[in-house]
Amino acid sequence: MIIDLTNKRVIVTGASRGIGRGIATAFAREGCRLAIGARTEAAIHETAEELRPLAGDLIVRRLDVADDESVKGFVAEVAEKWGGVDVLVNNAGQGQSGTLDNLTAEQLLAHANILQMGHFRMAQAVVPHMRVQRWGRIIDINAVAGSIPTPDGIPSVINRASCIALSKLLGQALAPDNILVNSLNMGWINTGQWDRHYKEMPPGVSREEFDEMVLKVVPMGRFGTPEDVAGVALFLASDLATFISGVEINVSGGLGGQITYYPKLKREFGEAMKARYDASLTKG
Description:
The chain is an alpha/beta fold. The chain has ten helices and seven strands. The chain is 48% helix and 14% strand. The chain has a seven-stranded parallel beta sheet with strand order 3-2-1-4-5-6-7, with helices on both faces. Pfam families: adh_short_C2 (PF13561).
């Protein structure tokens, strides 16, 4: 059976870059009617220029999933123009590190408002339209850290855990309406955050050394790509996945419990590289 999503009405949040952009591109190539949003207006319109020749139709708007009115207005516009919504991909939001020693409750709440409440707001807005047609797919983009806690990442761990719990709950609660909800939990996907992490390393560390360290915990030995994620999203949105709801799927190259070791690995690597650099200065 071939995946056929032609003319499906699809919303992708956080679509201006990285995983969201990759997913939006994949749905556009399938001939979907595509609505994309992100907080940065210039960035989402730049993405739209690439997608316009591919998508069956395209709606592009600035979207802030932390704002009730922004979410309601966006979904209402899509439903009015296309007569409903078939697929929602909840992708907006990013990881955040932090510990008891350096976080405030306000920082945790701000992160939760984007992730937990962002997923909730978007689902609450699209579900009435999906119920009318008795067909819908909600795909929540989450992280492995939400199901396997890792040290030094309180915001991402607890807020992703809540998102995964919400996904499972809705996957059961909405199944009688033929609205299927599932969570895709990301491992090490090669988007811009790894460039930022590399820049945090001490002087003298090559990108090859950094990547080798990072990938020690990934059994497949490579980074994932946005296309790896998009392929699973297309499957879950299709008629090939009519009996899957309330589950979490790790898109991680086998990365699981090893993630708990990574903060220690990174810390020890950074210390060793700093010592190497300091030694080189002494010799010089």
